């Protein structure tokens, strides 16, 4: 750690500007971020509260799929685990073993999980609780459980309508099931329109929530823990990230999958182990934390803006950003799996929201609530994404979670730095693939198209580290949530195909 800090202190003073480079970048970016957030998060009045239309669409769709597929998120949870472990691999191979696809079930899950299990699980949970109080955790968990059904539908369609070129490379995701699936249903024009809109928004989301937000929070942790205090420190950290990311994404999905299948288990074990240690060390307070979560889910304290509706909105909004169920992004990674049965990968996909939101987000929330039982920060008093601390200072996002870990385990904040960097790195890798697939759908599959996208993507890696948390949250939240509109419309029109695929696959398993 000391050597890194020493190197930074030598390099950073060489970069001098009349106004800090990070501040200049932020000033230029902030107006667009504010406009985009207001545009996407349009509201309607429901039960006396202003509720974003996109959250109604997410919740309504997830509830419908859960009921239509008779609780598949619970009934076939065990089946999904068996598919990931490879129990049914022999059933899914053709006789000549030439199935389409580039990765196995576990690699597809690891790549998709690395795209969802990111800093949203650490930073955005802190934002949700500081704004909406402990009750937001209850609604995050509910959104995660319902989102499992939505993710099943997305990932099944992703495989069912994917495209494979002459070289065996797979191209899939909402762009393809929207255009091809709706054409099958006699709606070719609507399919092309929704596919084009989704592809454009997916490219933007890859720049925002899948990239800029990740480097922003990783840079915040590195600057706080290692003492990087300079007006260009964020930009420099962003450049280092861009270099490392660039080395990996040049190799495409196979190299990304090889990296994520190693990084994801390691980072998950590191973070979960630290969180569980804190929870077991404070076992006497866990029941108090859950009591607060359940009581304030319906009767929040007076400081929470919007009352119960405000708490619900925060819970579902952060869950949507974290697990992306309904956004359709993960279906792009799952489309690359080696299988002949689309529903097999749909079952694998439903595990994502459970791992991401029900497990990891809940652990983070419990650590934060226990940390705050004695009033470390004030619920609801948030300015520019930062909560009011007991000493009068402001702290937000990843740094608030870091303080919670440090208070329970002295020195844990340094272990969290490692986890944060790995979370950010793996998420950026996965989203680079999502965005590239959408970009190729729009602009073709040439090498020049590939290089142009990757160059712009790496520029946003630097940008994210330079701008403020408030600006990056506004842009990233809106970009991820914007994907819901074209995707959910398609899912609600194409779910009968998913039922057919599920019946076919389950009948195969029963015969075995």
Automatic annotation (TrEMBL):
The keyword ATP-binding does not apply. It is found in: Cell membrane. The keyword Metal-binding does not apply. Signal peptide: none annotated. InterPro entries: Na/Ala_symport (IPR001463). It is a multi-pass membrane protein. Keywords: Cell membrane, Membrane, Symport, Transmembrane, Transmembrane helix, Transport. Pfam families: Na_Ala_symp (PF01235). GO terms for cellular component: plasma membrane. GO terms for molecular function: amino acid:sodium symporter activity. It comes from the Bacteria. The chain crosses the membrane at residues 44-69, 193-213, 233-251, 263-286, 354-373, 412-431, 451-473, 480-498. Belongs to the alanine or glycine:cation symporter (AGCS) (TC 2.A.25) family. PANTHER family: AGSS FAMILY TRANSPORTER, SODIUM-ALANINE, TRANSCRIPTIONAL REGULATOR, LRP FAMILY. This is Alanine glycine permease. It comes from Sediminicola luteus.
């Amino acid at each position: 750690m000391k050597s890194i800090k020493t190197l930074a202190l030598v390099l950073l003073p060489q970069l001098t500007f009349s106004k800090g480079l990070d501040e200049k970048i932020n000033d230029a970016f902030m107006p667009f971020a504010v406009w985009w957030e207001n545009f996407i998060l349009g509201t309607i009045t429901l039960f006396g509260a202003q509720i974003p239309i996109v959250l109604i669409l997410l919740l309504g769709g997830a509830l419908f799929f859960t009921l239509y597929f008779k609780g598949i998120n619970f009934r076939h949870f065990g089946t999904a685990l068996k598919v990931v472990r490879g129990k049914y691999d022999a059933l899914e191979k053709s006789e000549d073993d030439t199935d389409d696809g580039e990765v196995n079930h576990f690699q597809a899950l690891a790549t998709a999980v690395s795209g969802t299990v990111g800093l949203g699980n650490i930073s955005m949970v802190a934002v949700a609780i500081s704004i909406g109080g402990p009750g937001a955790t209850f609604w995050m968990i509910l959104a995660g459980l319902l989102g499992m059904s939505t993710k099943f539908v997305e990932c099944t369609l992703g495989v069912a309508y994917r495209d494979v070129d002459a070289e065996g490379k797979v191209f899939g995701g909402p762009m393809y099931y929207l255009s091809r699936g709706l054409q099958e249903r006699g709606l070719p024009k609507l399919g092309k329109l929704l596919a084009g809109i989704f592809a454009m928004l997916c490219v933007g989301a890859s720049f925002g929530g899948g990239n800029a937000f990740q480097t922003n929070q990783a840079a915040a942790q590195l600057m706080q823990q290692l003492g990087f205090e300079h007006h260009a420190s964020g930009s420099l950290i962003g450049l280092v990230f861009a270099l490392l990311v660039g080395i990996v994404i040049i190799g495409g999905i196979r190299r990304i999958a090889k990296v994520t299948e190693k990084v994801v288990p390691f980072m998950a074990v590191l973070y979960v182990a630290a969180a569980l240690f804190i929870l077991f060390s404070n076992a006497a307070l866990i029941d108090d934390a859950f009591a607060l979560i359940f009581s304030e889910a319906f009767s929040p304290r007076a400081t929470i803006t919007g009352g119960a509706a405000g708490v619900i909105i925060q819970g579902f909004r952060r869950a949507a950003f974290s697990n992306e169920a309904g956004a359709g992004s993960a279906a792009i990674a799952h489309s690359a799996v080696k299988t002949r049965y689309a529903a097999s990968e749909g079952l694998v996909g439903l595990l994502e929201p459970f791992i991401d939101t029900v497990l990891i987000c809940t652990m983070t929330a419990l650590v934060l609530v226990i940390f705050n039982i004695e009033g470390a920060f004030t619920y609801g008093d948030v300015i520019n994404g930062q909560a009011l601390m007991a000493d009068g200072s402001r702290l937000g996002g990843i740094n608030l979670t870091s303080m919670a870990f440090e208070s329970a385990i002295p020195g844990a904040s340094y272990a969290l730095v490692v986890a944060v960097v790995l979370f950010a790195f793996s998420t950026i890798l996965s989203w680079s693939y999502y965005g590239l697939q959408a970009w190729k759908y729009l602009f073709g599959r040439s090498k020049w198209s590939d290089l142009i996208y990757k160059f712009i993507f790496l520029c946003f890696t630097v940008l994210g580290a330079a701008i403020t948390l408030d600006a990056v949250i506004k842009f990233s939240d809106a970009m991820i949530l914007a994907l819901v509109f074209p995707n959910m419309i398609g899912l609600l029109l194409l779910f009968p195909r998913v039922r057919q695929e599920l019946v076919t696959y389950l009948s195969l398993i029963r015969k075995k």
